[in-house]
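dumping this here so i dont lose it
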């Protein structure tokens, strides 16, 4: 049994929409290095839970605890600042940009004249991609245009982007839904490796 304090915990999370109780008294603890799965039929509240954890929904009942302290995020940017990153089922990548550009999109390093520092962007993207590794799984080139990548490699780029934001809790919404068996196995290896290094 893992005695470490939870990175993220929920106590009595509930959410209602007009005429619908989407979540009712959800409790959980997530510790560093743990991997959890949320399963249920369509309409069971999985998407609502993800939206609460990411900061997209704030009008819920109950308490979220980050490192033991109550937290109520009012936006996804607050969720990211708290170290909680969501990779949606429909990956939010720009297909015409390179993997590196997608990883640092909106946070590109700049030089003294305010222009993008290409070498530094490449260095930071390479560092993020190095965190996404699996035995026997080749990583995509960071210079490759996302539109040319297979589904599994696009998933790796999305994970690298989340890790570049210092995510401590990584939430993936149906990450294998568009992957084949081989890509799914590689994704499972990546998740296991991230967990071994403390990502929840």
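and the seq i came up w/
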């Amino acid at each position: 049994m893992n005695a470490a304090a939870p990175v993220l915990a929920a106590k009595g999370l509930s959410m209602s929409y007009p005429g619908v109780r989407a979540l009712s008294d959800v409790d959980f603890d997530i510790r560093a290095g743990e991997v959890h799965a949320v399963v249920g039929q369509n309409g069971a509240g999985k998407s609502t839970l993800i939206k609460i954890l990411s900061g997209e929904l704030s009008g819920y009942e109950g308490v979220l605890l980050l490192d033991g302290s109550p937290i109520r995020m009012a936006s996804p940017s607050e969720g990211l600042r708290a170290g909680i990153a969501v990779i949606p089922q429909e990956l939010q990548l720009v297909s015409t940009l390179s993997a590196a550009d997608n990883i640092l999109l909106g946070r590109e390093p700049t030089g003294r004249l305010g222009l993008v520092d290409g070498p530094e962007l490449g260095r930071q993207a390479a560092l993020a991609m190095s965190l996404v590794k699996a035995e026997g799984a080749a990583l995509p080139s960071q210079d490759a245009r996302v539109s040319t990548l297979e589904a599994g490699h696009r998933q790796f780029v999305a994970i690298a982007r989340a890790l570049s934001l210092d995510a401590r809790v990584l939430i993936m919404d149906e990450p294998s839904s568009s992957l084949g068996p081989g890509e799914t196995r590689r994704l499972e290896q990546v998740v296991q490796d991230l967990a071994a290094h403390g990502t929840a």
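The CA atoms of residues 8 and 69 lie 9 Å apart.
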